[in-house]
Structures are given as structure tokens and as C-alpha cells.
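Q: Sequence in, structure out?
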Amino acid sequence: MTAPIRVVLVEDNATFREALELLLGLRSDVDVVAAVGDGAEAADVCAELLPDVVLMDYRLPGLDGVEATRAVLARSPDVAVVCLTAAANEREQRALLEAGARACLHKDQDLDDIVGAIHEAAGGAHQR
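A: Exactly. Output:
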């Protein structure tokens, strides 16, 4: 059996963060190793835990999703970032991709779509 994909959640809405952590925790193919509420903390946590994938919100206190993506990748270049946002417009999504995010998803997408993006971002090293 393949090891689960190690994921860090970066989301300032505690209710959404906890719900997503719970839902992903029910899956055997994903292991949420940390869940944090701001972009600055994300870079530190990723440098320490070296996850496979970061699910990054766009609207965050302090560093926004673009700045946080850059900070995470500067310290942990092997981590894949997937943006998960409620309201990023086309320009903001482009900025996230230019900062190094591999995909931008909306928070209202099906969990299967989110998990699929996690697998794709992890580079196929893990089987669904």
C-alpha cells in the first residue's frame, strides 16, 4: 500500500479548516499533518514538516495566498501548493499560479475534485 499524501491546510476560517481537516482525515490516501490559520505560519510549518502538498487559501491575514505561496516554496521548494479559495478572481488566480501554485480550486468544489487536485499536485507518486 502506498503511503498517504502528507498535506498542510492553510485556512483562516477555523470552521472551514476544521471541517476540511475532518473530511480529509476520513480518507486513507491523505494525511493532514498540520492545519494553520495564516500564511506566515505556513512557511514555518512546511519547512519543519515537509508535506507533499499545501492547500492554500487566498485571503489570509498578514501574508495573502500569493505571498504565502512564495514563502512556502522559498523554504520548501519540493512542496506542491494547491490554492483553495472562495473568491479569488481571474487576476488573483493568475498571480497564484505565477507564484508557483499548481492549481486553483473553489471551496465549493466536490471533495473528490479537491482530493484529485491533491493527487495531481503530488506528482502521481501516490495512487488514488
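Confidence is low (pLDDT under 50) at residues 124-128.
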